[in-house]
């Protein structure tokens, strides 16, 4: 394995780290801990696809948030391309939040 080689799991972890730097503007918790990221796929061409949701379909950042996620992922070394798909199935609920997020928001 050459030094340039990176496995898809390792790249997936880098993607998650970057996603954890993106915050919902209305809630002081990153979108990963909020449970807005449903899935991160990395293929052998280092194309990344993120399946995510928003807290509500008419979320004020419905346009900008997925774009921010896509741009930040594309900025990672080795990522060939990135695509963000928004879904509302299943709809987001507070149950999807991590313990950390619930603690941060005083829900525990």
From TrEMBL:
Superkingdom of origin organism: Bacteria
InterPro entries associated with the record: Fe-S_Maturation_MIP18 (IPR052339), FSCA_dom_sf (IPR034904), MIP18-like (IPR002744), SUF_FeS_clus_asmbl-assoc (IPR014291)
Pfam annotation, one family: FeS_assembly_P
Residue ranges constituting the MIP18 family-like domain according to the UniProt record: 13-86
Matching Gene3D superfamilies: Fe-S cluster assembly (FSCA)
Protein name, entry field: FeS assembly SUF system protein
Organism from which the protein derives: Mesonia algae
